[in-house]
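Running low. Any example?
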Amino acid sequence: MDTKRTTSTGVAVESAITEKRSLKGSEDKALLKKQRHSVKSIDGRTKVAYIVSRFPKITETFILYEMLAVEQQLVEVELYPLLRERTSLMHQEAIAFVERAHFTPFISWSILRAHLYYLGRKPLIYLNTLWTILRENWGSFRFFFGGLGIFPKSVYFARVMESEGINHVHAHFASHPAAAAYIIHCLTGIPFSFTAHGSDLHRDRHMLQEKVSKAAFVVAISEYNKNLIIAECNGKSVEKIKVIHCGVDTRVFVPQKEEESSRENNKHFMILCIGTLHEVKGQTYLIQACQLLHERGLEFTCHFAGDGPDEGMLKGQVLKAGLSSRVEFHGQLTREEIRGLLCQADVLATPSVPTGNGRREGIPVVLMEAMSSAVPVVASEISGIPELVTDGENGLLVPPGDGRALANALKRLYQDSIMRSRFGKAGREKVLAEFDLNKNAARLTQHFNEEVS
């Protein structure tokens, strides 16, 4: 808990409550509503509150850098994490957000006062909102109890956002963050939107229709996700759903120089795989592919960047396959360290698979980072990945869960330097055109501003 932040915010809320209690009558209430939606920061910028599940989370860099890019569009961003991630490693750019984020406990006197405020002034809206959270999430253990868990602090967030003159609320992930934004909207009328990514949309869609119906707009990171949302909503609210890809900073992830290429330095063919060590990432199939490549006599090394629940299992698989001298696990890395590995890599492999409980990727940002760096990629033909990687044009696609097909694709790139170069250049062009962070942040900001104007 950030005591300093919570205390100062609580004082601000109490001051706002005292001030607003003095306003009586329908005219004053209408004035307050108008002010709430039109108040901007002192320099006239739109004020957007971002709601995220956890912060600072090293694996969710796309949210961090999107917020930074949105601020470059002259939007003031306030951050409201549902949980504080306890970590010893974070990106340098996250430090400033950590210092000013609204970290809040699950219960406190300030939270209790916020609930009493809405119970006293908007009892029907308060109770109906709570009932909707319970009713629409019934049948989903994770969403039902998760909704109960976040309801107290979401109500408190609503009071803080009203006092700070927030113009728009944007949530990342269609699950608990979108539910929090829904609660805030119902209590305050502040318009909200949310971005649907991967497992947050694919695994459990309880209450999705209600979230979409109340949202000002919904961001789908792929056409695949857009179609899934439309189907879940029975064809309603189609006009609300905007496809805005996640993006990467193409000024940071740039092609390596010719003289820095690992091939020109006579190093082994380097395969790189970046991501949480988890079943959905499919790393076990890449190790299978590496075993096949080893048996075929190819000289290579494979590097895994990231940690996660499958780390022990994967290391055991490497040991059993006799690949200890060829496979290296680097653990969690910063963006700068990832850039360093990409400069050495000959290919990035992203062997994503659907899991038994419904998890699946959206479009992995690491694919964008590699392609922006002109590193050729091999990826699974799943979810929205084919919207980024076109087989045979800017990379190779393989069936998910097929270690042999993955090995064959890697061998093709191993043997064909011209293909690697062609894919690298085409991949860079694709990212520049459709997956550039700053271009897509400008599109998102335009939607924010439209809701405020």
Notes: Residues 3-247+437-452 form a domain with the Rossmann fold fold (CATH 3.40.50.2000).
